[in-house]
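Section 5: illustrative case.
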């Protein structure tokens, strides 16, 4: 009997110990939860939360290109759209942050972000931090500035968090920057990158209409190009640099902005202009912008004239800091039968399939140019709305005089022919020793700042 009481007593004691142990464990667990909750409320997240948060997934794009790495030339300012898309099925918090990379691959990062500034654009659609809905999209317009004499690569990413938690902000981007960039204005005037579409495939079978006002996109050798197509009266592509009037042709794939000379202002409001630049393109038996001659490279007649114009109107006026180095295409690829027919002949006269990609090995690279100045290609004229042997008087490229492109047409009977645009806005061919007007083409830096809206009555004015 005593033995049974002893066993019973031990069982009771063990149950009491077990019960007390459970009570203690519950109390400790409750304390841990309360401490964690207090930490979240105060904004301090621990290692476990960071591990969980880091598993949230997002997709990135810069200016519609699937990438999160931004390239900056030395001393360059650039406005761009950073697009983030949540791949989660729940709402999450986000903050835009960035790292300065040691190279283009961005596998390693520098310890400091010296000489780099990043701001939110005053025209940004969304904030640099906030809440992003499940599978939602945020479009944040940013401005990056490289204050060094070296190239820079920046990798943008998300500092994420759950909605019920307080996100500890890293505050990489805290200020706004006035967004008066030309590139920004061109894109936003067309509704933003997401609203700019590729044209119908057969659009180049016809000239642009009298009321057409479009900014389309296509690919060139450097990326996505955004080009104007339409009527002079309706497009917002008018720009004045000093007393020179230009038409904006396109944003190149490297984000530089291509201009074609429209004349020198002869009135204060620049509604009256004149162009006195004339020249044969070359000798009758030569067609290149740069010509290989007895194992030496020499200038065409047109190139000599353009270089003089550049010296007198860009260098002398101290505008070189606005000019961007990018390539020009003098497409000399051809097929040979009884005569030489250049590929541009087939593309533009026969098939009506222009391209901004230059496959020619004789593409005029900037390292081969004394100055970064050239002429428009016939393909660019076709993208703008011109067509072979068809008048297009209302088109913005029509200048009421004959002017050269830099695109070859054919070679027959020891005579070269080039494409030119006649006084009615029609693409035509003629031999290279014929005298036409020249319309210099230059490219502005992506960070060029302007005032104005680009209309005929309120053209862009470059701020230098």
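Designed sequence:
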């Amino acid at each position: 009997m005593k033995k049974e009481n002893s066993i019973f007593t031990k069982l009771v004691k063990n149950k009491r110990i077990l019960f007390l142990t459970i009570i203690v464990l519950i109390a400790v667990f409750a304390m841990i939860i309360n401490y964690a909750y207090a930490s979240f409320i105060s904004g301090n997240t621990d290692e476990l939360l960071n591990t969980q948060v880091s598993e949230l997934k997002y997709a990135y794009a810069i200016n519609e290109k699937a990438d999160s790495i931004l390239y900056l030339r030395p001393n360059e300012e650039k406005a761009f759209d950073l697009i983030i898309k949540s791949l989660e099925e729940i709402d999450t918090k986000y903050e835009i942050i960035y790292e300065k990379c040691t190279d283009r691959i961005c596998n390693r990062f520098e310890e400091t972000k010296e000489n780099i500034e990043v701001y939110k654009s005053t025209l940004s659609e969304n904030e640099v931090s906030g809440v992003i809905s499940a599978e939602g999209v945020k479009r944040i317009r940013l401005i990056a500035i490289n204050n060094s004499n070296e190239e820079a690569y920046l990798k943008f990413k998300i500092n994420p968090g759950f909605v019920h938690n307080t996100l500890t902000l890293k505050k990489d981007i805290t200020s706004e920057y006035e967004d008066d960039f030309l590139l920004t204005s061109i894109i936003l005037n067309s509704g933003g990158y997401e609203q700019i579409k590729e044209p119908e495939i057969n659009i180049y079978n016809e000239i642009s209409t009298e009321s057409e006002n479009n900014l389309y996109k296509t690919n060139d050798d450097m990326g996505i190009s955004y080009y104007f197509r339409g009527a002079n009266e309706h497009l917002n592509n008018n720009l004045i640099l000093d007393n020179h009037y230009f038409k904006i042709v396109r944003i190149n794939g490297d984000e530089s902005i291509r201009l074609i000379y429209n004349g020198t202002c002869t009135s204060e409001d620049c509604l009256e202009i004149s162009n006195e630049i004339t020249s044969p393109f070359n000798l009758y038996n030569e067609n290149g912008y740069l010509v290989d001659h007895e194992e030496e490279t020499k200038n065409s007649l047109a190139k000599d004239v353009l270089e003089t114009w550049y010296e007198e109107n860009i260098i002398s006026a101290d505008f070189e800091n606005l000019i961007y180095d990018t390539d020009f295409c003098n497409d000399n690829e051809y097929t040979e039968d009884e005569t030489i027919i250049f590929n541009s002949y087939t593309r533009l006269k026969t098939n009506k399939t222009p391209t901004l990609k230059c496959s020619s090995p004789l593409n005029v690279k900037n390292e081969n140019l004394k100055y970064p100045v050239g002429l428009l290609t016939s393909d660019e004229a076709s993208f703008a709305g011109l067509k072979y042997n068809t008048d297009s008087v209302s088109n913005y490229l029509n200048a009421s005089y004959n002017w050269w492109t830099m695109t070859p047409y054919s070679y027959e009977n020891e005579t070269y022919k080039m494409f030119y645009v006649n006084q009615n806005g029609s693409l035509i061919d003629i031999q290279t020793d014929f005298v036409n007007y020249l319309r210099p083409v230059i490219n502005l830096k992506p960070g060029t700042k302007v005032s104005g809206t680009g209309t005929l009555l309120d053209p862009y004015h470059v701020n230098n």
